[in-house]
What does this fold into?
Amino acid sequence: MKLKNYLAFRLGKENISFLVDRKSLVVFLVLLFLTVLTALVSAGLGEMKISPINVVKAWFGYGPDMERLVVNSFRLPRIIIAILVGISFAISGAMLQGIVRNPLASPDIIGITGGAAVAVVSFLAIFSDENNALTVSIKWMPLAAFIGATAIAFLIYMLAWKNGVSPIRLVLIGIGLSALTQALTTMFMILGPIYRASQANIWLTGSIYGASWENVSTLLPWTICLLIILVLVTRHLNVQELGDSVAMGVGSAVGRQRMLLLLISTGFAAGGVAFAGGIGFVGLIAPHISRRLVGSSFGALLPVSALIGAILVLVADLIGRVSFGPTEIPAGVFTAVIGAPYFIYLLYKHRNL
Amino acid sequence: MLLQTKRAKVLGLLLGAVLFLLFICFSIVYGYTNTTWKTAIEAYTKFNGSNEHLIIQTVRMPRALIAAAVGASLGIAGALMQALTQNPLADPKIFGINAGASFFIVFAVSFFSITSLGMFIWIAFLGAAVAAITVYCIGSLGREGLTPMKFTLAGAAIWALFSSLTQGMLVLNEKALEEVLFWLAGSVQGRKLEYLQTVLPYMTIAWVGSLIIARHINLLSMGEDIAKGLGQKTGLIKLVTAVIIILLAGGSVAIAGPIGFVGIMVPHLARSFVGIDHRWLIPYCAIIGGCLLLLADISARYIIMPQEIPVGVMTAIIGTPFFIYIARKGLTKS
Amino acid sequence: MSLEASALTLGYGESIIIEDLNLQIPKGEITVFIGGNGCGKSTLLRSLARLLKPKTGSIILDGTTIQKMQTKEIAKQLAILPQGPEAPEGLTVLQLVKQGRYPYQNWLKQWSEEDERKVNEALEATQMTELAERQVDSLSGGQRQRAWIAMTLAQDTDTILLDEPTTYLDMTHQIEILDLLFDLNERENRTIVMVLHDLNLACRYAHHIVAVQNKTIYAQGKPEDVISCNLIRDVFRMECQVTNDPIFGTPLCIPYGKGRCLVNKVGGNNGTPSVKIG
It folds into this structure.
């Protein structure tokens, strides 16, 4: 049989070889183009409007000083963070849904976001003086979130461990801990001054306001490292989704690989949550949208989910930035506002499947 | 499954009912204002208008009854929800009920400056119904009608949509946040007995309905085709179940605000006692849900006295260790 | 390659399902496990494929205890198709069959010429080439089972274990699947071990039959040597008459019981024969 719908790549005595589905490749390229286009438009919009051509010019260091400053110092880092965060949440969600084999799984449902939230509200409560001013730099907040996310992930894993980790036990314990973290967050918000509650609420909604090059230089290497590891382990994810028996039958060390996959998924979520707070919807919905575009093989699903996630957060942030200007609305409000109707449309389109 | 025989199940249910009544009494007697069992009884037999008697009649009694009713309702709603979606992770939240109610409340507070709890009831109920009906309709699109998968996904989308809109409004309007934050955390404090009277008829219908429909749900959870083959009108049963969930969870959110966790946790706890037969599961869910919320509400008064922790927070703090224990011990599949 | 079980005890939790069982799977032949529901034949098969850890005893593959081997190395020698596997929604046949190449791939080598050839062979052998782009969940029962068998074939192993591969299939598809496995055994000399419920088909296709009863092996050997009224009575608790298949000459079991009768029946109506012949 000729694999007419596929392209095979082989290099150097076949030690490097891949198979790519043509349709998925097309979808991926279209989405990539859309991502770049959205980024260009986003960089040009705001209080100061700049045409896409001038944006590109400013990027490469040409054009008026003011435009270069606005594009390169303010908008570009924010756009890059939006893309990275979208990728992180989407991939984390897609992986979790595969590992647990449950369509409701996502980083916020199993408590990873919740752990970060507790860390952040405690951070705000502990390091505030009586005038509600922070006694340490706000720069440390991502670190707090990151620690909270990883700590809760380890806690979930430890509590779920009992001669190995069964997916359903993992999720249920995640849900339990997630409820607990939500409760603690609410308590902190209610007991503290309203100003702090409001601050925490913005974080919970999820916002990338104030992203800087410094943030980019932290998140970018982290995400790239994880992406590289991800490419190497995607095939494990594919066999895990066939169920434990089949996966073991084809020679997958199911337990060890599940742990590895969870670790990577948590890593993505922790990175995203550190810099964007609780943008929850992306991790849940981007994989579902992608599944309806390219099917469920992870080789195609993960990259397409990543781009869907990136576009969702980019557009959400753009709307939040320009629609009610000068007031900023957190991007987390709009990810669901854009994502949910599109997703419902997809449900409608595929209603008879 | 802890209770194997029918006798054990009946005894367990009786014991639960006794505990339930006992918790109601505790809830009436204990709190910031110290009262005794004697004063509590006298408040109804020999009312003398004293401060204690007033507190018992107008504060403690309504509060205990509301906690009991809401806890029982949420427990049942959770069991029905998990049966309808065939997903052990589902709770009434996935039906969009809490998100819809919260959205309507915050909208009313932000744009119409409504702050009376009495008005909140109707607004929240309406919001819950609007969201849930939307979810049901989207989930029913297509040839096969309501399938667990479509229902779950539609629910997740609507829930996310409403909750992010709510958060958006709260971010823009700090004053509204201050006013509804306590409501959003879920609480049975400061509710009048009339509030319960408003929703009680609907809840009662739903309680009775859930007991009647229990055996049909047993059939439905064996799979749609088998249920149809045995002559069940599955579409009707699903619709009735959905309506019951809306009445129970919608009524609960209307009086007590969005209280999470009871809906997802209680059914799992109940299943570890009586297994998957909904004729037993539903009464057990009601008892366990009621007890849990009463217990949470009582301890919420003591932890940081004189302030109170919202009962929604307390439920999670008490319930999580239990839940983790059950999850580790191994769950009976839904 | 040889596969054997030695002093094997299996069970879940407290309950023991197989106790102190010894078994040697004949090389290059078709072996079929038979036995009543819940007798442990599936459990035995799963443990042979290292899906279930023995409580005591061991499974030995080519002289090495299976627990000590790398799971990937086992997967290159032995494939297993569990009972009623489920594919995730939206997965295509090709994507499924590709997964059979998992043990041969590594993080860079994910689609070699060899992979492509084996996948194509597997699709052809199961006549799934035309359906390669279809989604698994849109296929009929027989096609779906062929897709899963194709996945195990792509694994390119000497031994294939299958747990009730013909369950839920109509007669045509049952024969089609069994013919396919028979051909694989004849042509490529692959060792095939499976659990089957249909005794007559088991007798027709198996070189070696293993009857499991009371936590251990009741009898094993060539079907024509092993299958008898007594065995059926002890293993299945059922009375029957064993004759020869008029076409294949292999043992044919005709159970007693009730039913319409158009000739002078030798058995009674209540399930026990009133007259015994032979």
User: Anything to note?
Assistant: The longest strand of chain A covers residues 6-11.
